[in-house]
């Protein structure tokens, strides 16, 4: 069977997306499985089959490729796992999780003295300006440094790096994995020891159509079991706390011999309130550990933070960002 079918891999055209798709393609080819890269244009110029999601509007990063998969234009999509909604689109299945890269977040800085104080994370009076578009990173920075100014920074990795260079900010936060994969980790970058990553940060997932058994079997040969189990715990934690929207929820699990070590947290948006847990369980508990840890935090009062964040998101969705002209 191997060598007969050519699997069509869909990829977006950012440097990181291309790197990830090419990596999966190379791994498949080394197993004798043939692949073909299909570049996928941005959403606007597509005739999309709208994928159905079990929960609300999610998956801004994955929607386009989901539609291509469901309509059979591609057989495989490769994603940064942290960008994938905790519940996949209907008809799409996880086929493999690739070995994890660094899970850390990095501070890219200008002044080494500022960086040293920031990385140490003790001085509650430290001031400065750090850029990030992530509510998770923002909440954790404010927890450490209540007086820090957070600048909103969006865009792909390269755009964000350019913006940091052309502004007066003291630093910006990036996922180590993203910068390292495209070989753009600068000299003046350091892992932030106290920052807990986003669920699934540093992991790559390969998905296929649920009914395409042949593709799923072939791709599954790339699966790294330790990463798959660790990320399952992290994503269950996220899903049980509140699902996939952008939230100050962090989680990291690591398989060590026959145990799984887990840390997870949820912060209020201003970083002032936090519920966190750190625990270890037998590896055979990987199917329940994340859900149970989240339930425990909800019982301890994390449900109030979840409710606040939901209410804030709902308000933002119904408040137009500009004045609506009266109907004529
Ligand atoms: N938020 C976008 C995104 N999605 C995946 C990565 C990098 C790879 C990873 O985290 O697994 C990044 C960049 C970043 O967070 O700096």
UniProtKB/TrEMBL annotation:
Q: Is Transferase there in the keyword field?
A: yes
Query: What GO biological process terms are annotated to this protein in UniProt?
Result: heme biosynthetic process
Q: Which SUPFAM superfamilies match?
A: Periplasmic binding protein-like II, Porphobilinogen deaminase (hydroxymethylbilane synthase), C-terminal domain
Keywords in alphabetical order: Porphyrin biosynthesis, Transferase
| EC class of the enzyme, as a word | transferase
Q: How does it assemble?
A: Monomer.
Protein name, per record: Hydroxymethylbilane synthase
């Amino acid at each position: 069977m191997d060598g007969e079918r050519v699997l069509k891999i869909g990829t977006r055209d950012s440097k990181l997306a291309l790197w990830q798709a090419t990596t999966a393609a190379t791994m498949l080819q080394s197993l004798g499985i043939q692949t073909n890269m299909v570049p996928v244009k941005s959403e606007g110029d597509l005739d999309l089959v709208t994928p159905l999601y079990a929960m609300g509007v999610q998956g801004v990063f994955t929607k386009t490729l989901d539609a291509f998969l469901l309509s059979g234009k591609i057989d495989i999509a490769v994603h940064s796992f942290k960008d994938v909604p905790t519940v996949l689109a209907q008809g799409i299945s996880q086929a493999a999780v690739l070995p994890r890269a660094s899970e850390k977040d990095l501070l890219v800085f200008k002044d080494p003295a500022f960086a040293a104080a920031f990385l140490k994370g003790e001085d509650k009076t430290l001031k400065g300006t750090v850029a990030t578009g992530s509510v998770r990173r923002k909440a954790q920075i404010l927890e450490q440094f209540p007086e820090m100014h957070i600048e909103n920074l969006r865009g792909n990795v390269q755009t964000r790096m350019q913006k940091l260079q052309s502004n007066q900010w003291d630093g910006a936060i990036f996922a180590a994995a993203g910068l390292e994969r495209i070989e753009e980790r600068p000299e003046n970058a350091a892992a932030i020891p106290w920052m807990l990553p986003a669920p699934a940060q540093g992991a790559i997932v390969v998905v296929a159509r649920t009914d395409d058994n042949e593709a799923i079997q072939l791709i599954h040969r790339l699966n790294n079991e330790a990463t798959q189990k660790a990320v399952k715990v992290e994503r269950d934690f996220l899903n049980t706390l509140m699902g996939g929207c952008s939230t100050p929820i962090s989680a990291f699990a690591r398989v060590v011999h026959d145990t799984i070590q887990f840390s997870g947290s949820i912060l209020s948006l201003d970083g002032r309130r936090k519920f966190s847990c750190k625990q270890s369980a037998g590896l055979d508990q990987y199917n329940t550990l994340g859900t149970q840890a989240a339930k425990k935090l909800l019982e301890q009062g994390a449900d109030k933070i979840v409710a606040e964040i939901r209410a804030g998101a709902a308000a933002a969705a119904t408040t137009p960002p500009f004045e609506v002209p009266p109907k004529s």
